[in-house]
Design goal:
Blueprint lengths: L10 E2 L2 H12 L10 H27 L6 H8 L4 H6 L6 H20 L14 E7 L4 E7 L1 H18 L7 H4 L1 H25 L11 H9 L6 H4 L9 H10 L12
Antiparallel strand pairs: 1-3, 2-3
Helix pairs in contact: 5-8
Length: 262
């Protein structure tokens, strides 16, 4: 499971300590790195085509006995159309949605209610409460790392339910594989969208709200929101135009170069 921020466990480090100490050992926030065009193009490619690639592999195994080139050959030779392949793809089912919702809920409960114990007896395993990366504001959130024990408990319960108690067949995941794939993609996009919106409008640490820097500074000095002239200022070369466009649209132009970097 993903790491959960502990509400009252975050602390703020001074810029000097972040630069000289923790940033080196913990890694820096993503905004601290310069991204080249190839890396940006690679990320965009993955965001756009990763679900399609996964679907292609699943479809090839389901409809073409895992012959990865067969779908392309059939379409190229006219023996199949994309519409035909799509029509044979199983849709989301009520059973798959219920199974996936039950599994996700169970994982959330394991993560939130059960502190990690594997780090106490597994050599080299780093679990329990750990510090995360230093945010641009200098905050360091603490996270409960307990994914290994959640994995072990989940498989133990699956074995018990499928083989000892016969509550469900051992092939329950395989029998609902493609509908479960749709459920996973839907949840993935929903969570990603929520995280992006949360980062813009209500971040965990208000000081990390990068686009509110100028507005916050102006409000604290009694000057109000930045004027139209500051909002129309052309961003310096090399800084993020995405952040600039967002801040210009929201009327909050970043006050420093660090708030513009991505």
């Amino acid at each position: 499971m993903a790491a959960k921020s502990q509400p009252n466990a975050s602390k703020t480090k001074s810029p000097a300590s972040v630069t000289n100490g923790r940033a080196v050992s913990q890694g820096q926030w993503g905004r601290a790195w310069e991204v080249d065009s190839f890396s940006l193009a690679s990320v965009i490619f993955l965001l756009l085509f990763a679900p399609v690639i996964v679907y292609y592999f699943i479809m090839a195994c389901d409809q073409y006995s895992c012959a990865l080139t067969a779908p392309v050959v059939d379409i190229a030779t006219g023996r199949a159309r994309l519409a035909d392949i799509w029509a044979k793809t199983p849709p989301v089912t009520k059973k798959a949605a219920q199974l996936y919702a039950l599994w996700v809920t169970f994982q959330v409960l394991l993560y939130t209610w059960l502190p990690d114990f594997c780090h106490k007896f597994v050599p080299g395993y780093v679990g329990g409460v750990q510090e995360g990366a230093v945010t641009p504001a200098g905050a360091v959130n603490k996270y409960e790392i307990n994914g290994l024990q959640a994995w072990l408990i989940t498989h133990l319960l699956w074995f018990t339910g499928a083989h000892l108690l016969s509550w469900f067949p051992p092939t329950i995941i395989f029998d609902n594989w493609i509908p479960l794939l749709w459920c996973a993609n839907i949840l993935g996009y929903a969570v990603s969208t929520f995280v992006m919106i949360k980062g813009y409008f209500f971040p965990t640490n208000a000081k990390d709200w990068t686009c509110s820097a100028a507005r916050t500074a102006a409000a604290s000095s009694g000057a109000g929101s930045p004027g139209p002239s500051s909002a129309r200022t052309r961003p310096p070369t090399g800084r993020s135009t995405t952040a600039s466009c967002w801040c210009r649209a929201s009327g909050a132009w970043p006050a420093t170069s660090t708030t513009l970097a991505t």
